[in-house]
Design brief:
alpha/beta; six-stranded parallel β-sheet; two-stranded parallel sheet; 6 helices; 14% strand
Amino acid sequence: MIVVTGGAGFIGSCFIWKLNQEGITDILVIDHLDTDEKWKNLRGKKFLDYMEKDDFLARLSAKNAPHGITEIYHIGACSSTTESDASFLLRNNYEYSKKLAEYAFANDIYFCYASSAATYGDGSEGYNDDESKLETLRPLNMYGFSKHMFDLWLLRNDLLNKVVGFKYFNVFGPNEYHKGDMRSIICKAFDQITETGKLKLFKSYKPEYDDGEQKRDFIYIKDVVD
C-alpha cells in the first residue's frame, strides 16, 4: 500500500491521479481537510482509504499503523511562506516529517518527501544539490527554515542515502485553486487577465531588472508527478 500525505492538496492529488493512470489504487490518503475546498481535489480519484493526519500519526505512535505500507510519499505540509506561527510550522513540517521518516526507516519502507526551493534562501549560496553545502543555506522565511531543518536532520543523522527528496520551485497547474494567495503566479495571472484583460506586473527593487522583468523558474504539475 502506498501512503500519500497531503493527498488532497495540489501536488498530492495530482500525484494520486498519476498513480491511478498507472493502474495503482492501493493508496491511503493522509491530509487535513478542514474547511477549505481542497476536498474537491479527491473527486474522481481512486484510493483505498482516507485518514486525517493527526489520526495517522497517533496510530504510528501507538504501533497500530495500517497494515501493508510499502511506500510513503510525504508531500503534506503547511506551504504558506507568510505563516508567522513558528511553533506550528515546526510541528507540522519538521516534527511530523521526522516521525514519518523514523517509522519508514524502522519498517524498511521507501520514503520520498517534499523539501522546498525556499531552503535555498536568496540564492547567494547557489542552487547546488551537493549535500555538503546544505549547512551553508540560509532560508528567508520560517516555512523555508522548517523544511531546511528536516533536510539538516537527515544530513546530521547520516540518513540522506535512505530517502529521496524534491525541492520544488514554482509548480503550477490544475488543483491549486484552493490555495488562495499561495497559488502560483501563473494561476493568478490567468484569473487577472480573464477578469480585467490585464496582468499586474511586479515592481522591481533591483536596478539590474526593469519593472516586470524579474525571472523565476516554473514547472508544470504533470512534469512533477512524472
